[in-house]
Amino acid sequence: MKFKRILLKLSGEALMGERQYGIDPVRLAEYAQDIKTITDSGVEVAIVIGGGNIFRGVAGASNGMDRVQGDHMGMLATVINGLALQSALEDAGIPTRLQTAIKINEVAEPFIRRKAMRHLEKGRVVIFGGGTGNPYFTTDSAAVLRAIEIEADVILKGTRVDGIYTSDPEKDSNAVKFDTISFDEVLRKGLKVMDTTAFTLSQENKLPIVVFDMNTNGNLLKVVSGENIGTEVNV
Prior knowledge:
By secondary structure, the chain is an alpha/beta fold. It is built from 8 helices and 11 strands. Strand 1, helix 1 and strand 2 (44-49) form a beta-alpha-beta unit.
């Protein structure tokens, strides 16, 4: 395997499947099986998941809601998604722990770095919920922060497109895909990979990011195995 310990970043919208909102149990089960293929190969897996399928703080703020309140609601949405993903993973036979940046002791452990790393060493999947625990920071930032803290080899950003393109491939048929690209080139070309805070943090810590299509079964294993799937952002 090319990577020993990974941080998988999933969007909340990814859990909707073909629905307009909420959680699609079929999509959850598919993700769980894909994750099982890599844990069975000895890869240590941590996951950060967004909450946009339930609530998005920025959207709430744009409609007049207090931004801090909205972001706290978004954090709780990520915990709901984390619980759903934990259930699906355990149904697939994968031991899983949910840790949160905000204390909800009845449903999840608080985030403790050393404990998280110990879980990973024991072969458990660790899901990080609650974002960073702070308003104004996205789950992209949470993903990079947690990846650095647990000393992950890479951030795998699972999306619905198969990499980074010169423009939006869903809107521009002439868009060209990059197999690899540097952090500096992403910034120079103004390409959207993650929000600026998360991307800069990843760049400063020389933590590579691989953007790939998570919705094609088997792609996760291919990425971890080192196959040229998606786009790798590196120094």
